[in-house]
Amino acid sequence: MLSRYTGRSTFLGFSGMLLLLALPLFLTNYYLHVLILILFFGLIATSWNILAGMAGQVSLGHALFVGVGAYTSTLLVIWFDLSPWIGMLAGGIAAMVAASCIGYLSFRCGLQGPYFALITFAFAQAFQILTVNVQTMGGASGLNVPLKGASFLAFQFESKITYYYVGLGLLSSALLTIGRIGHTRTGYYLKAIRENEAAAQALGIDPIKFKMAAALISAFFSAVGGSFYAQYVLFIDPQSILGMNLSLEIMIYAIVGGIGTVFGPLMGAAVLIPAGEFARNLFGHSKAGTHLIVYAIFLVWIILRAPRGIGGWIEDQLGRVSKETYAQTA
Amino acid sequence: MRFVFILQAALTGLMTGGVYALIAAGLTLIFGVMKIINFAHGEFLMIAMFITFFLTTGLGLLPYFAILVAVPMLFLIGVGIFVITLKPAMKASDLTKVLVTVGVSLFLQNICLYFFTGNFRTLDVSYSQHKVTLGGLVISFPHLAAFGSSIIVLSSLHWILRYTDFGRSLRAASENASAAFLVGVNVDRIQIISFGIGSACLGIAGPLLAPIYYTTPTIGSHFVMAAFIVVVLGGMGSLNGALIGGFLVGMVESLGGLFMPGSMGPLASVLLMIVTLLLRPRGLLGGKRC
User: Fold this and answer.
1) pLDDT tens across B177-221, in order?
2) Is some CB atom of chain A closer than 8 A to the CB atom of B262?
3) What ipTM goes with this model?
4) How far is B163 from chain A (nearest CA, A)?
5) Neighboring chain A residues of B267 at a CB cutoff of 8 Å
6) Residue B176: Cβ within 10 Å count
7) Lowest mean pLDDT among A112-116, A170-174, A220-224, A267-271
């Protein structure tokens, strides 16, 4: 499926990117904030997609890796006054260590499908419970990132525009990575494993090795996203950054956008986050719950309307158009 | 620590475990037939608890009478939601269906938040302080009622699945849907009804839980987490497993709360879930491979 994204779609993607570079210059702070949220969720949903979309291993606990990233960089600032840029890298590595433990155990034991989803869910829960109870990690009340004044080294900026560009850079690197992997031997092996693991193994592919590789890359970028979030919001707590809801949200964006496509997860975030904000602005002042009712209806509607995701839906529409034009010319 | 405390904690856990088993039975039934994890399950339970709360405070009857109303209502709500949201997604991937249930859960939670606010409501019933003493151990009446009723319901469910025609078709559909279809089982109908029955189980669990816990729009997530763990321990799709898993999770949770510092109690059951998935993914009763 990825290979379809080489021609026209890549071109579209990069012209879109160009537009994204110019966009913040024309926007107010609020819209910029929404865009930054799209970049953050787009980044972690894209990372999730490396494991779920390419390798076919659906994780129901990806908040774990996001949280490891956020907590690592924040704790390194608090304890050692280390720059969050280094913390981000350290967080990525820590998440890779966590992913290799979880991945090795579950892939070794042959867990697939819902079983893999449930064990990732369980690991994320376990880590959340631990974090809530460890006071040096801020416990249930969370951690404030110490204010250092605006500086590049401290990863704290005066203007949201800078955060926007940083987020855009991180997202692009994740997108480039997943796009590149799709065309390498590893990418084809992963697709073979996703489609039929036993058959892939019979051809001499080591499924554990390649699933592990996907898990590590996925965890790394999720953690990078987590550190970015911590530096942007300057506050993290177990509920928001490690909770079940975040894991589900990641999944929702990726699947609504189109699982297994390069730009799908970003598209999902780019459609659903503004929709949620729109509902909040429209109904946020009415009784509690109103805007989420509207959002939930929209969510279910769009899933039913485009079961293969927005990416898949666009593909279908393009396919229909090109078939029609083909019929006319023929 | 005195041994009696441990026994007491285990006993209380066993009682709650009965209700966990009942909640998980609905979840595992739906999983067995449709192979999806229903994320809206906890919200159905929450609705059942709200029905109980308003019937009890409105009419002044015992909460257990609410079962008569909650079971058919939950069945209808379950069927209705299945037909509106899941039926159109039947051809889509399992993941898409799971996501639909996530959307439904968000919807139901906020509908209840809208109408009933996020306040915590507790049901004050005259007998909530009644106790049964058993050689130094104490069981509160609501716990005992919850335990007893769960066992009765689960046994009848077991009987239905085992000995009726409907039960046989349901088991056939969950074993192999296309083969069941080929021998004349109406799989569509089975799916709708099993979703209804899975939800109706909560119509019983809700009234049993309302006197013990508080009722609020987010209460469902607490129980659904426990139910996930129960389903994993018992083996996904296994009703007997749900019973044993329920008892186990109830006791482990309660003992975990006793022995672990802070709010670490739930960690014990989560770790149990991880170990079970790794060593016996098909559940404690099932085989080694998944």
Assistant:
1) 888 888 888 888 999 999 999 999 999 999 999 888 889 998 988
2) yes
3) 0.89
4) 30
5) 126, 129-130
6) 11
7) A112-116
